[in-house]
Write a structure and sequence with these properties.
Largest sheet: 7 strands, mixed
Shape: globular
Number of domains: 3
CATH architecture of the largest domain: 3-Layer(bba) Sandwich
Low-confidence stretches: 101-110
Mean pLDDT: 90
CATH superfamily of the largest domain: FAD/NAD(P)-binding domain
Structural class: alpha+beta
Radius of gyration: 23 Å
Number of helices: 15
Strand order of the largest sheet: 5-4-15-16-17-14-18
Distance between the termini: 37 Å
Length: 494
């Protein structure tokens, strides 16, 4: 590779590192030389295996298909999430991806999906609308008519997918087996890094995708912004579960417990389970005991893992300093409830390619940092909303109820007396429709409020029409529904 090309060095071989190296190479092509450095013997975290629909956009950019990941990496289809015991014990609700988003709005500031939600709630049919989605969830079905036509995400084995994507780029990027041993910094800029082997590497741009350890970025004296007071979950126990399953659910399950929640992600060859909890309210041993009870009850098996991963919810105030950008878990951490880690990684990469012109600009760096901060602020607020429930059956849930921040109180008031709109939120990662679903599950709306919203916006008539359209679309798609496991087996046989 030519030395006069713009040199990019990515440190980290997890999914964020692979995404960074392959996306930047795919986007900028021959303009850049890309090197990816990681310790080939170090295993990935292996917990966050539930994705969002945006991952398809990444796959399209790097030239890899969903079918490839199903055939080679044990990936499965995800139509949404099922939440159990969040609002109260024995409660259950689903958060699905919209089937069709093509309805026209005469006013670009109005989301007709919001209006449809308000209308369905007003006439007492909101739950009926979601029953169409529940049909798929309860029967382990996916859309049988060309799956690519409908909005979906994936469940993946992050480690396997990372290595597969890397293998497709082995002739396009430099891949180095190594560990960063020293970082030479001058004026908050990386002059060079030295590997344990003694190899010295210089670069025009360094990407720290090394995860929670921050192999490079920590040397640039960044400031950490913690949100642990509002989001105290800070531990996870990963537990890959290998056994035969008769079916493959097309959704992720998040089941709340007295001190946190349990993740259940179905792959074609295993389940990815994990317990996310707060050490402020339980010990690691107690958490393992609680997790073990759940595994026995739910999957008739016992906890196999003794691993506890510590984390802190928060982010770096600056995520681009000098010639180094922190990406993925290196830039911040959001507990995995809404599978935001790789989503945020891709949004960060889009911002880099959209803003970076190979010339360091204080303005660009400032704007990137502002944008990347807004990603985390958006995620934290939305996930905090999930814990704003009626549960008070443990010290953990009492704490989450007692420390309700002012912005959440204001959102409560808005939902009670009216209906949320796109203008109520940042809409960086999560839009108003996401908040609507959680708000409904948590009994935050009133008929008075939804009626007032529809009348004030003159939306009732159009919302009625669009509500019927959506129901017809969902009914039509049902006739093509196929069993998820059977479809996966078929794709693998091709």
């Amino acid at each position: 590779m030519s030395q006069d090309k713009y040199k990019i060095t990515v440190v980290g071989g997890g999914t964020a590192g692979v995404m960074s190296a392959t996306y930047l190479k795919s986007y900028w092509g021959d303009q850049v030389d890309v090197t990816m450095i990681y310790d080939h013997s170090k295993p990935g975290i292996g917990v966050g295996e539930s994705l969002t629909p945006i991952f398809d956009k990444y796959l399209s950019t790097v030239g890899i298909s969903t079918l490839e990941l199903i055939q080679n990496c044990n990936a499965t289809i995800k139509l949404g999430l099922k939440f159990k015991n969040w609002t109260k014990q024995d409660s259950e609700w689903i958060h699905s991806f919209p089937i069709n988003e093509a309805l026209d709005a005469t006013d670009p500031t109005i989301s007709y999906f919001n209006a449809v939600d308000a209308y369905d709630m007003s006439i007492g049919q909101y739950e009926n609308a979601y029953n169409y989605d529940k049909f798929y969830f309860d029967n382990n079905l996916i859309f049988g008519a060309d799956i690519r036509t409908y909005r979906h995400a994936l469940h993946i084995d992050a480690n396997v997918v990372g290595r597969y994507i890397e293998s497709q780029f082995k002739d396009k990027i430099n891949i180095v087996d190594g560990i960063v041993d020293n970082v030479e910094v001058e004026n908050r800029e990386i002059k060079s890094i030295t590997l344990a082997s003694g190899q010295v590497i210089t670069s025009d741009l360094f990407i720290d995708a090394s995860g929670l350890g921050n192999a490079m970025f920590k040397y640039l004296d960044p400031e950490w912004i913690s949100v642990e007071d509002q989001l105290p979950t800070n531990r996870t126990i990963p537990n890959p579960l290998f056994k035969d399953f008769d079916h493959i659910p097309p959704y992720t399950t998040a089941e709340a417990t007295k001190n946190g929640w349990i993740l259940d992600v179905p792959l074609s060859n295993r389940r990815g389970t994990g317990y996310v909890y707060s050490s402020k309210f339980t010990t690691d041993e107690e958490a393992k005991q609680d997790f073990n009870k759940w595994l026995i009850k739910t999957h008739d098996t016992e906890l196999q893992s003794d691993r506890v991963i510590k984390f802190s919810n928060g982010y770096w105030k600056e995520q681009w300093i000098g010639n180094c950008i922190a990406i993925g878990l290196s830039s911040g951490f959001v507990e995995p409830l809404e599978a935001t880690s790789l989503h945020n990684t891709f949004v960060q990469l889009e911002a880099i390619t959209g803003m970076h012109t190979f010339v360091k600009s204080p303005h660009t760096i400032k704007k990137y940092n502002e944008f990347s901060n807004s990603i985390y602020e958006d995620c934290f607020e939305y996930i905090r909303f999930f814990y704003h429930t009626n549960r008070t059956d443990s010290e953990f849930w009492k704490y989450m109820t007692d420390i309700t921040p002012e912005w959440l109180q204001e959102l409560d008031n808005k939902m009670k007396h009216s209906f949320v709109s796109p203008r109520d939120f940042r809409n960086v990662i999560f839009d108003s429709s996401s908040y609507i679903s959680v708000g409904y599950a948590h009994d935050r709306y009133t008929k008075e409020g939804t009626d007032r919203y529809l009348k004030s916006k003159f939306l009732t008539a159009q919302a009625k029409i669009d509500s019927q359209k959506i129901k017809e679309i969902k009914l039509d798609v049902q006739q093509y529904a196929v069993d998820h496991k059977e479809w996966i087996d078929y794709v693998k046989s091709l």
